UniProtKB/TrEMBL annotation:
This is Dienelactone hydrolase family protein. Keywords: Hydrolase. The keyword Nucleus does not apply. The keyword Transport does not apply. It comes from Bradyrhizobium archetypum. SUPFAM superfamilies: alpha/beta-Hydrolases (SSF53474).
Length: 224
């Protein structure tokens, strides 16, 4: 359904991504940020789903073509650890937002795992954004303080998550509330990465569909 494209970062350098366009020409945009595996078929499929739901969706390729197999967590961790999160957010992800906003459309940001953390950083750093939806990712506070979040956020977390733990989620929710920020937060009795239907061991269809419905409604409300 979608296609691989190149687009410009704010610094003028070219970068790549996967773009899926909605049927209508003046659709709002959603930037979709990958998990620590890279720009996988699952992430492309989510872009296609956003397009079917009425959004132009662009997933920047933060690993420059590298896609890690799902069983190789060591390689995924090495890729994520070597990623410059600030450069990825303020250049690749912002470039994707600028690409989608060029027709005057409102643009949202969403991401999963690594991409969830990038979504929160982007909510503090990318002026083109109107709303964000976070899936089971929280950056360290030195990367993005809740007090600096500039857009309404919706967030989805798993109760059986040993990376984005319930305690970390509670602390994030409290910090957002204390800062007076707009946050809709949902918890699911599921495991980390429950939206990824390619990972049978953790995928939870009921939780994933509930979260998807909430996310698309949130974007329709804020992006039009």
């Amino acid at each position: 359904m979608g296609t691989h494209i190149t687009f410009k970062r704010p610094d003028g350098n070219e970068t790549a991504g996967y773009l899926a366009n909605a049927a209508r020409g003046n659709a709002p945009g959603v930037v979709v940020v990958q998990e620590w595996w890279g720009l996988s078929e699952n992430i492309k499929g989510l872009c296609d789903r956003f397009a079917a739901a009425g959004f132009d969706a662009l997933a920047p390729d933060l690993y420059k073509g590298v896609v890690v197999p799902y069983h190789d967590t060591d390689a995924a961790n090495a890729q994520m650890t070597s990623l410059d999160f600030m450069d990825a957010t303020t250049q690749n992800v912002r470039g994707a937002a600028q690409y989608l906003v060029r027709n005057g459309a409102k643009v949202g940001l969403t991401g999963f795992c690594l991409g969830g953390a990038v979504t929160i950083i982007g909510a503090t750093k990318i002026p083109e954004l109107t709303a964000g939806v976070v899936f089971y990712g929280i950056p360290p506070e030195q990367a993005a303080k809740p007090a600096d979040v500039k857009i309404p956020l919706q967030a989805h977390f798993a109760n059986k998550d040993d990376w984005c733990t319930p305690a970390a989620v509670d602390a994030f929710e409290k910090a957002m509330k204390d800062a007076g920020k707009s946050l809709e937060l949902f918890r699911y009795d599921a495991e980390h990465a429950f939206v990824n239907e390619q990972r049978v061991a953790v995928h939870d269809r009921q939780a994933a569909e509930l979260a998807w419905g909430r996310a698309t409604e949130f974007f329709k409300k804020h992006l039009g």
